[in-house]
Structures are given as structure tokens and as C-alpha cells.
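C-alpha cells incoming
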């Protein structure tokens, strides 16, 4: 069964990485940093998260052009309290800052059993799940989250006052990690955009239309800016607390401190936590096996693994129009 839409073409993983790397090097990235950034964008498409992979590359370049992202800026530790550290991202590329923060959290977990890095003054991390997979690949349990610009109405309001604040939880497993990657809105804005572009109905109501009715029309939800919080009031409450924790732990900005403009989303706050896994052999496998015994059951990460295998065999799926626009940038 194909796992991509009619708008997609298949391209070799290394070809995508080389093209993106070249574009980023021309915009001030060192060769090594350009390649890591390119791989993180490509990994998102490889795993089927198109909305936060190459679909976001054009916006990322606009951030660079506007000076919101500084290509050679690297995160710096500004405070240490044992297993907890506070870092300043210095407005560097969000994905590279996040990757460095999770790597440091894993180092702290190796020494202390748990490690936490709170990161302020950073940028959009693109696909948040990448840093859960990173922790799991290194053998650690991982939790991380970010706040965002105000783009989600809190329960009881129709004004976007809170963020969709993605939350990632990862558990390592030799036969395929279990990784949850979810926003506080039922559908991320990237997912809404992808559904709208392809003219597909959302599988469940994703927000409100201009007549205050719940709708499965992604374009209608985009136009009102009123996506539905997961779990209604529960998702709204979780968003608020994730925002508070990220801002308080990092000493950075909260959602209310940021402009409600996608092209000016910068200075976000993030938290990265890693745990050395306890000695409990076979538990994760038993949990997954209990789910897979019922053939239709899904678990976090299962879809990404299926997409990854498809990409390995057939090439990485990329939106044909998006790829055409990216290739044109090689001439700039």
C-alpha cells in the first residue's frame, strides 16, 4: 500500500540532502551544519511528516533572510544546577539548537540518571519528533516540548492566546522505538495546510469555521485560525502548563510574549529531558506485542517506521511543486 499522495514524487535521500545542503551553505551555514540541517528536513519527509519537512524549507529560508535565524549562532550554557542546565540559543537554527540540547540532556542523563536542558531564545525546531527519535537512538527515554507563537484559542475563547506547543515522548526499543509527537491542536497548522492543498477532508473535526461550527474542512480552519485543542479543555490546559514550564525553566519567553505572525515566530522556549532507561527487559516489547495482537491497533511511531521502510525501498516522498521550488533556489 502506498503511503504518499498523488502530489508526491520519489527522490533518493542523498540527493535531497545534497540539494538542501548546497542551498544552506550559500546562505552562511558551514558544511557540517548545513548537512545536519538538511538531514533533519529530509528525515521528516522520510518518516512521512511532510508538513514539517521540506514543506517548511521555504519558510525557514525566509527566517534566514529576515535575520530571525542566525546561521552560525550556536547555543551556550548560561547556568548549571547539576542535572538541570539552562542554555541560550542565540537565535540560531532551531533544529540544530534542539539537536544539541537533546544531546546534552543525554550526556547529563548518563552522569545523573536524568538530564534536563531548558533552552531559551531559539527558533522553530521544525519536526519536534526528531529529538525524541534522537534520544531513543542513543538508548534514552526522552521527553521534550516547545512553546510557539499564539495560534490556538484557549477553551472558552475564540482568540488565539495560547500555542499548539508540541510535546514529544520517546521510549527506545530495538525493533522500533515508540515515539509520540503531537501538537496541542488536533491538527498542526502544517497538517491543516497539507490537507487543504490536497483537497482532503480531515478525518475528524479539526476546528471551527466562520459560522462557529466544528468542521472537517482544513482550509476553513486555517482561515479562522481556530483549530480545536486536543481533548477540548484538557488540551488547552496542557498547552498553558507546557508554556509556563518551558518559559520558567529556560528563563525565556512565554507564548504571550510573541507576535501572532508565522513569519516572525522567534525566541521560543524549549525543554529537553532524557532518562537512563531502568533495567526492565522486555517490557516495551510486551506492550507493543499486546497492541499488535489486534491487527488494527496503532501505537506512536508505528506509522513513521512504515513510512521509513517505504522511503528506503522507493525513495523519499516529496511534494512535486515544493521540490521544483527548492531546486530553483540552486540558481540563486
Amino acid at each position: 500500500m502506498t503511503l504518499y499522495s498523488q502530489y508526491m514524487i520519489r527522490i533518493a535521500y542523498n540527493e535531497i540532502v545534497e540539494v538542501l545542503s548546497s542551498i544552506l551553505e550559500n546562505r552562511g551555514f558551514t558544511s557540517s551544519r548545513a548537512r545536519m540541517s538538511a538531514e533533519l528536513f529530509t528525515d521528516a519527509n522520510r518518516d512521512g511528516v511532510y508538513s514539517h519537512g521540506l514543506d517548511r524549507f521555504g519558510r525557514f529560508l525566509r527566517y534566514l533572510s529576515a535575520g530571525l535565524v542566525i546561521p552560525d549562532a550556536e547555543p551556550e550554557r548560561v547556568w548549571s544546577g547539576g542535572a538541570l542546565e539552562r542554555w541560550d540559543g542565540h537565535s540560531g537554527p532551531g533544529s540544530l539548537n534542539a539537536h544539541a540540547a537533546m544531546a546534552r540532556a543525554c550526556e547529563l542523563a548518563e552522569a545523573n540518571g536524568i538530564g534536563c536542558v531548558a533552552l531559551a531564545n531559539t527558533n522553530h525546531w521544525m519536526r519536534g519528533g526528531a529529538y525524541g527519535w534522537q534520544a531513543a537512538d542513543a538508548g534514552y527515554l526522552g521527553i521534550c516540548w516547545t512553546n510557539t507563537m499564539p495560534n490556538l484559542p484557549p477553551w472558552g475563547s475564540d482568540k488565539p492566546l495560547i500555542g499548539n506547543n508540541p510535546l514529544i515522548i520517546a521510549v527506545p526499543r530495538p525493533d522500533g522505538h515508540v515515539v509520540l509527537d503531537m501538537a496541542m491542536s488536533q491538527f498542526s497548522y502544517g497538517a491543516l495546510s497539507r490537507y487543504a492543498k490536497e483537497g482532503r477532508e480531515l478525518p475528524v473535526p479539526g476546528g471551527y469555521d466562520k459560522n462557529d461550527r466544528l468542521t472537517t474542512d482544513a482550509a476553513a480552519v486555517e482561515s479562522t485560525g481556530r483549530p480545536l485543542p486536543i481533548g477540548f479543555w484538557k488540551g488547552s490546559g496542557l498547552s498553558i502548563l507546557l508554556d509556563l514550564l518551558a518559559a520558567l525553566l529556560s528563563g525565556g519567553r512565554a507564548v504571550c510574549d510573541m507576535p501572532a505572525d508565522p513569519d516572525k515566530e522567534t525566541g521560543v522556549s524549549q525543554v529537553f529531558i532524557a532518562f537512563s532507561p531502568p533495567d526492565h527487559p522486555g517490557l516495551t516489547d510486551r506492550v507493543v506485542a499486546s497492541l499488535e495482537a489486534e491487527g488494527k491497533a496503532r501505537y506512536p511511531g508505528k506509522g513513521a517506521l512504515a513510512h521509513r521502510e517505504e522511503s528506503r525501498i522507493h525513495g523519499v516522498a516529496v511534494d512535486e511543486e515544493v521540490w521544483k521550488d527548492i531546486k530553483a533556489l540552486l540558481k540563486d
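note: The mean pLDDT is 94.
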